Amino acid sequence: MTSPRSWFYGWRVLLASSIMGSIGIGITISGFPVFFLRIREELSLSSTEVSFLIGFAWAQSGIVAPLMGWLADHIGPRKLVLSGGLTCGVGLILVSFSNNIWQLILFYGVVVAIGRTAAFNPTLMATVNQWFIRRKAIVMSIQGTSFTAGAAVMIPMFALGADLIGWRHTILVAGVGLSLLTLPVSYVIRNKPEDIGLLPDGDQLDKNLSPTDSADQTYGTDDLMLGQALRTRGFWLLLIGLVIRVSIADAMLIHSIPLLVWKGISEQSAAFFVSLVFLFMIPVRLTLGISGAFLPPYAVLFCGMIAGGISVWVFLNTDGTAAAIPFIMALVSIEGVATLNWIAVGDYFGRRSFATIVGIMTVFYSIGALLAPVVMGWVYDQSDSYSTSLTILAPALVIGGVAFGVSRKPREG
Predict the structure, then answer these.
(1) Cα–Cα distance between 89 and 343 in angstroms, integer?
(2) In the chain, which end has fewer C-beta atoms inside a 10 angstrom radius, N or C?
């Protein structure tokens, strides 16, 4: 395990975290909106209420994200993955027995959300960020792409499961499966390479160095503490772009099935097109993420957001099955650059406080992730149309792209 000639253990950590994230995020985030219309009809809810349920669950993680980020930086991610994964699984099982909006908010919006934040994000990203520096762009792209692959699989499986055994039994099976998966994954994951006598990327610690020098070898001189990062222009510009990107992406994903049905596409076909979003996102995320190793992340983020804004505008002005094309292009563009967000954070601020910084950022974008889908649902309830919402989202993406485009890594010293 500690020999530089053997397979670097970081690759095992990457594999385990990618499997955990792909299935966990696919179940709790990407796949859950498949049940939007079914939950609304069975429980006699409005679009606003279902939007609030899902938006609250996704945004609520922002409340505990700073704590989970701090814990990941100070006690390591292994315990968080174990406790969070089991909590998430139990929460899903409870969701399957829910009979009203308040039970759904409690179990999905609180229990599942807390478990998800502890087990998946920012914990898994922080884990990979600890194990790799030179290969950071590549491995974070692989991890981000695996999350997308999980969504591409879970969405059609959830749609099929809802048709065959109902949405409740589908979620029940998912909760049991996630709980069982958590045990072997948490066994494989290690907090950081220093725990087994290595440095990131498989380098060996120099045993002749003093503890102070060893710490300098572990963290680079340009690694910033949270307070230092908050005082940089790059942090706030990245944050503006991130809040806009995540808020709009979450709103469109939560309303993905209703949006396509609004355009005249059947519910089953809509689920198929949404799964295509994540299928096409696999090569896009991998390619764009790897590009972070030789292209400035801010430039790729700028281009992705601009492309997303144009696609949203085209979707607004297209009807029928043809509307699925710009819809897919919009989400692939917006979400395809997601990995670059975190590569940029790692490049700009280093390893030392990565999870804490991501946790703080999560608080901000979670507010937008709650408000955007709820407002979108409310507008639809009032007008029976998504036109007003889409008219606002398109230029907002351009603004977010500009924020990314002018951000830069803080200068050393």
Answers:
(1) 29
(2) C
Nearest to 33 by CA among 247, 254, 249: 254
State which amino acid sits at residue 405: G
Distance CA 234, CA 4 (A): 36
For 19, other C-beta atoms within 10 Å of its C-beta total 16
Q: Hey, CA dihedral for 408, 341, 226, 400, is it positive or negative? A: positive
- The position carrying tokens 């385990």 is 16
Residue located via tokens 């307070």: 227
Determine whether 274 is exposed, middle or buried from the number of CB atoms within 10 Å of its CB (0-12, 13-18, 19+): buried
Based on its alpha-carbon atoms, the radius of gyration of the chain, rounded to whole angstroms, reads 21
Q: Distance between CA atoms of 243 and 247, rounded to whole angstroms? A: 6
Q: How far apart are CA 121 and CA 184, in angstroms?
A: 19
**Looking at residue 197, what is its pLDDT?**
77
Quote the DSSP letter at residue 315.
H
As beta bridge partners, residue 227 has none
133 within 8 A of 8, measured Cβ to Cβ: no
> Cα dihedral angle (128, 133, 137, 140), rounded to 10 degrees?
0
Please state, in angstroms and rounded to a whole number, the distance separating the CA atoms of residues 5 and 27.
Answer: 37
57-90 burial code (b ≥16 CB/10 A, e <16): bbbbbbebbbebbbbbbeebbbbbbbbbbbbbbb
CB-based contacts of 41, cutoff 8 Å, min separation 6: none
Cα–Cα distance, 86 to 98 (Å, whole number):
19
Query: Across all residues in the chain, what is the average pLDDT?
Result: 85
* pLDDT level of residue 91 (50, 70, 90 thresholds): very high
pLDDT value, residue 100: 92
Query: Are 96 and 175 within 8 A, CB to CB?
Result: yes
The two tokens of residue 105 are: 């908010």
